[in-house]
Every structure is written in C-alpha cells, then in structure tokens.
C-alpha cells in the first residue's frame, strides 16, 4: 500500500525585535489555515520561530535575554497555534528557545501531534558562532552564549502522522544540516522524514575571508540534498527569511526527496507555504541498494569519526630509501 504524506515548509518572513509573539503566532496561524486549504498533514516552521533571531544581540547577563525563551508549550501566547493545529488536524514542527525548570537553555525543536502533545523533542547539537562579544564581527552570532549543546543526541521516533500511518521522523536544526555525521545518525535509525528549521544570514559575517554571496544558498541546498540522498529520506527545510533587524536572511526553503531532488522551493522572503506530496515508499530504493547500511558500511574504517574532533596533519611522504 502506498504511504502518502502531504507536507509543508511554512517559511516565515522576518520577525523584528520589537514584535511580540502575538505577531509571530498570528502569522503562523494564517499559514496553518493555508496549509489546511491545501490538504497538508504536517507543517514545518523555522528555527526559533517565535521571535527575532536574538543570538545576534549581546547581553552581558544572559538572564536579561530570558524573555526570548519558552518555559512551557503551549503557553498563553502560543495557544492559538496549538488550537489551529487541533482544529485543522495538522501535526507541526516548531523551533523555539527552551528554558528548563532548572534554568538550562537550549535551541530546541518540537514535533507536535495535532492534539498538542509533543511527539519528539530535539536540542541543537552543532551550535555555531561564539560565546563572548566578538569585535571583529559586524553582527554577533552568540548561540554558544545563549544555549548549551543539545543533550538528546539525534533521536528518531516512529509515530502516526497524517494518513500515512507510522512514519520515522527526526529533526536537525540549522547548522546541523552541514554535518554529515548528524544525518547519518538519523539514517542509522531508518529516518524517513527529517524536519529542520534555519536562520541563515545572506552574508558570511565572520569577516575572516572571502566567500561569494551566491554560495550561501548553494551550501545550504547542497547539504540538505546530500543528507537526504545519502540517507534515503525526505527533508523539509524551512527558513526564516528577509531583512530582520537590519540583517538579511536568505530564505530559499526547500522540500527534498530521497533522490536528493528539490520537490518545492520558496521564492519570496516573506511568509510563504510550499508543499509536496511525499510517497514514503521512495525511501526503500536507496536503503535497500546503494545505502543498504548493513551490507555496505565499514565501521572498522570510521574510527576517526567518533575518536577525534579536530583535523590532524597527515604524515609527510618521503621517498623510499634506495
Ligand atoms: N542558526 C544557525 O545555525 N545559523 C548558521 C549560520 C552561522 S554563521 C555563524 C548556519 O549554519 O546556517
């Protein structure tokens, strides 16, 4: 029997620093309404979807940034989103800043059943940027200041989603998409659908070398398309886009199939819903042939992947004596 699932990437235009959750949640509810009109069963919202990308703002005392975090979901402010999901029977992925009851802070994504129950939680592992104010940068990227490294690994769960029956779902967040190790850990759990949100600036703001602007989107798509192909899964990658607090985010949300092909792509820098009908059976070809991990992986040769963090210099070649 064909397992079909209609999914959407619900790209958000910019959310300015001065705008509250009433603004962002209202926009997300409207995207949910559009998703319902198009028969969507799963909606994927971006990373840190409820607010501006606040890690660009430095606070000496991180407690001064506490307003950006969620301590409970749903909350009074996010309740309309959960009500829309229930009303339209749509599961959804939401990126948010999480502050736990014991005061820990994570860059988190939740996958929610239409009932509002959280099916799966993921906390971002690959935090980019820096911890302290960096005077070399024109714009700060302080994820390492505001978040701890995620402590949940890369979980996958098999859960009923829409009319497809059980689906193996997993999540990555933004910078994670650039790390093949993260995709492979999901692949090793037979993931079928990877949901990921991102906030990626159009310019490399490190100011430490040249990177042509047009390569920013290429690197994002290249990473997602390769991740889906090499792990025989679908990917829904959703951006926050446009000029947020004076800083440009490149958008270009995409939905990708297990062949690595882009099935749908956003073309605006605004709130935009892109959709695709997934045939989950497409995951079978890759995982039973070229990426049949049980048949072809060679873990005895992969020791460096988990045994070493930074790159080492190779041995020097020397001509053999005589
Ligand atoms: N949010 C996020 O992870 N953004 C990064 C850009 C980092 S630039 C220091 C990304 O990989 O898209």
Contiguous low-pLDDT stretches (5 residues minimum) are none
Bound ions, cofactors and other small molecules, one mention each: 4-methylsulfanyl-2-ureido-butyric acid
Counting DSSP H or I runs of 4 or more residues, the number of helices is 8
Summed over residues and divided by their number, the pLDDT gives a mean of 97
> What topology, given as strand order, has the largest sheet?
5-4-3-2-1-14
Determine the CATH superfamily. Answer: Carbon-nitrogen hydrolase
Q: Can you tell me the CATH architecture? A: 4-Layer Sandwich
Cα distance, first to last residue? Answer: 68 Å
- CATH structural fold name: Nitrilase/N-carbamoyl-D-aminoacid amidohydrolase
Estimate nothing, just give the exact number of structural domains. 1
Radius of gyration equals: 20 Å
Number of strands: 14
Query: Helix coverage percent of residues?
Result: 10-25%
Structural class: alpha/beta
Proportion of beta-strand residues? 25-35%
Largest sheet: 6 strands, mixed
């Amino acid at each position: 029997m064909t397992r079909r699932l209609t999914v959407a990437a619900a790209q958000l235009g910019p959310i300015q620093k001065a705008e509250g959750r009433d603004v962002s949640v209202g926009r997300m509810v409207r995207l949910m309404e559009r998703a319902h009109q198009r028969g969507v069963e799963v909606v994927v919202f971006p990373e840190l979807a409820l607010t501006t990308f606040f890690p660009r703002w430095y606070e000496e005392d991180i407690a001064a940034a506490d307003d950006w975090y969620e301590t409970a979901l749903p909350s009074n402010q996010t309740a309309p989103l959960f009500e829309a999901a229930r009303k339209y029977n749509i599961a959804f992925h939401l990126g948010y800043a999480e502050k736990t009851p014991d005061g820990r802070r994570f860059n988190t994504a939740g996958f929610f059943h239409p009932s509002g129950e959280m099916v799966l939680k993921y906390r971002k592992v690959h935090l980019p940027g820096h911890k302290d104010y960096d005077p070399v940068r024109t714009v700060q990227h302080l994820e390492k200041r505001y978040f701890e490294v995620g402590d949940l690994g890369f979980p996958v769960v098999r859960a009923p989603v829409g009319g497809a029956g059980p689906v193996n779902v997993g999540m990555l967040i933004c910078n994670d998409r650039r790390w093949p190790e993260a995709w492979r850990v999901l692949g090793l759990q037979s993931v079928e659908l990877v949901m990921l949100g991102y906030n990626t600036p159009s310019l490399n703001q490190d100011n430490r070398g040249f990177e042509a602007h047009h390569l920013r989107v290429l690197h994002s798509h290249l990473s997602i398309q390769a991740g889906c192909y090499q792990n025989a899964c679908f990917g829904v990658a959703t951006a926050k886009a446009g000029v947020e607090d004076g800083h440009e985010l490149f958008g270009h949300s995409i939905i990708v199939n297990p062949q690595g092909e882009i099935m749908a792509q956003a073309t605006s820098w605004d709130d935009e819903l892109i959709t695709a009908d997934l045939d989950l059976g497409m995951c079978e070809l890759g995982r039973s042939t070229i990426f049949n991990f049980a048949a072809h992986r060679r873990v005895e040769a992969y020791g460096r992947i988990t045994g070493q963090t930074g790159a080492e210099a190779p041995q020097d070649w020397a001509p053999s004596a005589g």
